[in-house]
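Please check both lines for our workbook:

___
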Amino acid sequence: MPPSSEPQTGSLDDLVGVIGRLAALRPTEHELADHKLAEHEPAEQIFKGQRLVIALAGPPASGKSTIAAILQRRLGPASTILPMDGFHHDNDWLEARGLRHRKGAPDTFDVTALTHLLTRLRANLRASPRDGNDGPCLPQPVAKPKPMAVPTFDRTHDRVVPDGSVITADHRIILVEGNYLLLDQAPWQTLSPLFDLRVMLEVPVATLRSRLEARWRDLGHDAAEIASKVDGNDLPNARLVIDNTSKMDFILSTSPESA
């Protein structure tokens, strides 16, 4: 859906309803094969793609992974999760550029690879060439997409797992979750048109701090290391997201208890 100047604010139930309505507008395989095209609507508006690609954005520790998992359970087996964290540059790349201490900042991700994958996920149809008549250019169904291996991130071992998950042809709803998906800065702002729905998670900064400190504590870091990571990297990244996110369609306010 086109980004709204006035995004809707609502609960998780409201968000599930919005996704359900959008998913119902996706053409089925039978409709694609039969070219059931409304005469008053241009082809490109109806055949946007068989997949619904949703951005779940928010600052670090806003609960993106938890919300994505809840949505996946509620939406059923047609949905799957694609984590932005799978597109971290590896530690050797970061070390060579003096960026290891900033891991998790916008410039430590491979945005080009993420853009390429999102584009591939959306490329489910092709348009047939015009035959010289005045009729519409009707998209033709392509072969059933092959399973696509996608990267994930192992937080415990602080590394990307290159083929950590698989997106199959049965996955019609892709829940992409990550901090910077809606960041209004180069090169991230080029991602926005690749999403059908743009969701921003809204969490108080004090709650983010508490969750971030608990996260690093659970990973075995001492108080000095936690303070360095939270105040030196995590919270500046959080404020960057809060202050520079735009083109959202839905704002999800999560409770302090949400992970």
Remarks:
- Residues 8-253 form a domain with the Rossmann fold fold (CATH 3.40.50.300).
- Confidence is low (pLDDT under 50) at residues 29-49, 125-142.
- The longest helix spans residues 223-243.
- The longest strand covers residues 159-167.
